[in-house]
Amino acid sequence: MTPNSLFYLLIAIIIIVFIIDSLLDILNAMHYDDAIPEELSDVYPEEEYRKSIAYKKANYKFKLVSSSISLCIMLLFFFFDGFAVIDGVARSFSDNSIVVGLLFFGIIMIGSDILSTPTAYYRIFVIEEKFGFNKMSKKTFFIDKIKSIIMMIIVGGGLLALILWFYELTGKSFWIYALGLVTVFTVAMNMFYAKLIVPVFNKQTPLEPGELRDTIEAYSKKVGFQLKDIFVIDGSKRSTKANAYFSGLGSEKRITLYDTLIKDLNNEEIVAVLAHEVGHYKKRHVIVNLILSVALTGLTLWFLSLFIANPLLSAALNVEIPSFHIGLITFGILYSPISEITGLIMNIVSRTFEYQADNYAKNTYNREALISSLKKLSKNNFSNLTPHPAMVFIHYSHPTLLQRIKNLKE
């Protein structure tokens, strides 16, 4: 294969992936006006349902436009040798391959973040604002952006520097050491994410003593779930949408409730949601997902090690000096079809786990309270009640509301 033919293969992959995603969005949008299934007839009042459809259509149109603009920018970047230009800028500062790689990705990531800021701003302060979801101030928006960039430089830059160093030291064997690094990092994030990352963006406070805390602790004791902490996070400073999540491993387990969840649901419904999260832990889903994530990362790194030294990867992007960072860009696009397949498999596994966690909550707590909570959360988040089956199969990590309710009622 010549550099020129590889270049056009990259372009073809980018365009095909875009077309497939766009067709799925179009198919999905064609079902927005479908009649609500009888089992979900009590989720929305008619006026609210019309509003939810308008919200979905607004997001759909916005995504089509923004993704089309992103595609055009990316294609222009390829055809006008953007990667070669950035590589040249990075090399003008240093001859050290690790420094060059860090500068190269730093310029791309920060540039990409800056270019995506207008679309993020429009989505939050126009669409989300229009439909009553946004609670974020413009000050918070830009502070979040700055914090994200700083964290990307520190955490992402640190990991990338180590991987580049492994490659310099060991050549093709770098993937073994890189996998070890990623594994340690993934486990650490699972254990300490709530303590290290969340406080950078949100305030967490212990759930105050009272009926809700007593009910949660009584349920945890009943099912043998050793719970260290229950926290409330100030999600309402950004959005009205509600959530709850379980984090940590071993003695670091904690449950975090969004303040919007406490506002929207009654105590029985909140505990039912938490029973679902406990179900994930009891069924070892957290461990299985961790193992699968590490295994997929190992597979990707191994494939990368087979091709990264090939100068054709850099030549395809018209870069004269072959390098790890340029090869990584080319490989990432070539690997994207495989990534789509592994993502599909992970979504199938995830949906299976969601059913199992629902069943655990049904069997150990209260089926009707969980159904009620799912309906309220779907209503308050304007969830799509009639998605196209192809969209669900390919992109949904959770079953649809209808599928979950049918499963709970079995």
From TrEMBL:
Q: Which CDD domains match?
A: M48A_Zmpste24p_like (cd07343)
Q: Which cofactor does it need?
A: Zn(2+)
Q: Which residues form the Peptidase M48 domain?
A: 207-410
Q: Where is the CAAX prenyl protease 1 N-terminal domain?
A: 32-203
Pfam families from the entry? Peptidase_M48, Peptidase_M48_N
**The keyword S-adenosyl-L-methionine appears for this protein:** no
Cite the entry's keywords alphabetically: Hydrolase, Membrane, Metal-binding, Metalloprotease, Protease, Transmembrane, Transmembrane helix, Zinc
**Membrane-crossing residue ranges in chain numbering:** 6-24, 64-86, 98-125, 146-167, 173-193, 286-309, 321-338
The record's listing under PANTHER family reads: CAAX PRENYL PROTEASE 1
Identify its protein family: Belongs to the peptidase M48 family.
- This chain's protein is named M48 family metallopeptidase
Give the species this sequence originates from.
Aquimarina gracilis
Q: What broad taxonomic lineage does this protein's source fall under?
A: Bacteria, Pseudomonadati, Bacteroidota, Flavobacteriia, Flavobacteriales
